[in-house]
Design a protein that fits this description.
Strand content: 25-35%
Radius of gyration: 26 Å
Order of helices and strands: HHHHHHEEEEHHHEEEEH
Structural class: alpha+beta
Length: 254
């Protein structure tokens, strides 16, 4: 029971993405971005062009027309902030916000970026992307129709933490000839992380990463689930060397 409880903690211990986005993008930032999106939907291109950076102003008019034609004329059924970035450099503060607009069964990602410094304000980016469904729907966790690699990652994400916890219990109860705490720390972490994007099936390997209990899952509303598994090297070495490490019964454990 203790193993399953620890596994649950690995799965849910994360900060809400929506809370994080709200910290990055203030209410004023969001209102400013949606105002220019409303101007686009109303086809009031001149007001957007006046605020645009001179470097993109000449080619912006045609692009705005294409973007406006891509959007439905109906009132959005949902507007959700799904991305927020801020970058400060010598030029000033760049704010980049992405909203998800829903129009019934039609979904769009609309990105607005602007540069502000002192009292100046210029739009440096304006883009629209259509999606097959909402990001939450596209990135939800599903078992049906997945590849053997998906199922392998899922099994290992459950089995590796259980193996590490069981090894920790055995290590704690075993009399060792040397100090016990280095082994406990070694067993707690997996070495080298394999990560799988549950939506796309793409996977990667980070050889220098360490993962608590050898597995983890990141799950947020607007991004794909990522299942990560690391090699439980410490646990494996403990079992291979357990007999050599065990102290005689007459000795006190440390």
């Amino acid at each position: 029971m203790r193993a399953w409880w620890c596994l649950v903690l690995v799965f849910v211990a994360s900060c809400s993405q929506q809370d994080l986005l709200s910290v990055i993008a203030s209410t004023e930032d969001q209102a400013l971005a949606t105002r220019y999106i409303d101007l686009l939907r109303a086809r009031r291109f001149e007001e957007i062009e006046q605020a645009a950076d001179p470097g993109i102003r000449s080619q912006l008019h045609d692009a705005l027309g294409q973007m406006a034609r891509a959007l439905p004329e109906a009132t959005p059924t949902s507007i959700t902030l799904v991305g927020a970035q801020k970058l400060t450099n010598d030029q000033g503060l760049t704010t980049n916000l992405t909203f998800e607009y829903g129009f019934g069964e039609d979904w769009f990602l609309i990105n607005v970026a602007w540069l502000s410094k002192d009292d100046t304000f210029t739009i440096v980016g304006f883009n629209i992307y259509d999606t097959e469904a909402s990001l939450e729907e596209l990135s939800k966790f599903e078992l049906a129709g997945k590849s053997p690699t998906h199922y392998l990652f899922l099994v290992l994400a459950v089995a590796v933490p259980i193996f590490c916890i069981y090894t920790l219990v055995v290590c704690a109860r075993t009399r060792l000839t040397g100090r016990k705490w280095p082994w406990i720390i070694f067993i707690l972490f997996g070495v080298g992380t394999f990560s799988l994007n549950w939506t796309s099936g793409e996977w990667g390997f980070a050889p220098l990463n360490f993962l608590l209990l050898g597995a983890g899952v990141t799950a947020e509303p607007y991004v794909p689930w990522v299942v990560s598994v690391a090699l439980p090297l410490g646990a494996l070495l403990f079992w291979l060397r357990r007999r050599r490490l065990s102290a005689p019964a007459s000795e006190d454990p440390r």
